[in-house]
Amino acid sequence: MVKIAVAGGSGGDSIPGVTWRAVAYDDKSDLVDALKGTHTVLSFIQVMKDTGNQSQKSLIDAAIIAGVKRFAPSEWGSAGTAGMPWWTGKGEVKEYLEKVNENGKVLGYTLFQPGLFLDYLATPYKTARYVTPLNTMIDFQNRRAIIIDGHDSILTFTTVQDLATVVAKAVEYEGEWPVTGGICGNKVTVSQILEIGRPFAIDNVKLEDLEAGNLKSSWTLETAHPSLTKEQAESMMKTVLIGTLLSSAKGAWATSDEFNQLLPEHKFAQIEEFLAEVWVGKP
């Protein structure tokens, strides 16, 4: 078993068996000292709050000095950031990792990309202890959805439990990590999702309206991420919904399956079975 350091990701309840240490991301010597003896670093630093991506860049630099073998930047979502301006930092961190390895491999890394959490389709019910339920453009509780005219987007949905299991197995995997670390629990079209269970009330929106920043729908997102203040959440809900719709139309949520191929023995939770279990007996 290798030693792992998890950076960030402390917004929820504490996890038993984990040793915590506060670090100063602007103090390289402090970071290097904290990472001594560490094999793998998993970053969950909040990209939106990391001005200039300095915290992650400093973490990468310190990891190299400390002799860390593997690094996973704060990805944990889509295969791209098209239409999602709040995640542009992910692309910049990826470029930084490419640069540190441009003259030869200095630090192994992978971009863990599981798509959307399948758990979000259970909102408002909580299906994972450390994940807060969030709304999406497909609302199973109220049987309503917002779709883009002419775009039957392909989406990847993976449960949080499956992601955790795959990451744990990936850490112990002795081969080389793929740079793009796609994790594909379920790859489905929007129309296939809307066929599950009772009929949905559909709001159709136009791509050109979304690109102009206009959301012409009868409802919007209601639940915000716990990392945001109430004021930030209110201002971001429209932006997030527009961005999620746009990015889905541009293929950002159709992830690849590199880790499925590396770990073929793992069986992923399937969307219809998961949703049937969540919503059985509920209105």
TrEMBL record:
<keyword id="KW-0560">Oxidoreductase</keyword>
<keyword id="KW-0521">NADP</keyword>
<dbReference type="InterPro" id="IPR008030">
    <property type="entry name" value="NmrA-like"/>
</dbReference>
<comment type="similarity">
    <text>Belongs to the NmrA-type oxidoreductase family. Isoflavone reductase subfamily.</text>
</comment>
<feature type="domain" description="NmrA-like">
    <location>
        <begin position="16"/>
        <end position="196"/>
    </location>
</feature>
<protein>
    <recommendedName>
        <fullName>NmrA-like domain-containing protein</fullName>
    </recommendedName>
</protein>
<dbReference type="GO" id="GO:0016491">
    <property type="term" value="F:oxidoreductase activity"/>
</dbReference>
<dbReference type="Pfam" id="PF05368">
    <property type="entry name" value="NmrA"/>
</dbReference>
<dbReference type="InterPro" id="IPR036291">
    <property type="entry name" value="NAD(P)-bd_dom_sf"/>
</dbReference>
<dbReference type="InterPro" id="IPR051609">
    <property type="entry name" value="NmrA/Isoflavone_reductase-like"/>
</dbReference>
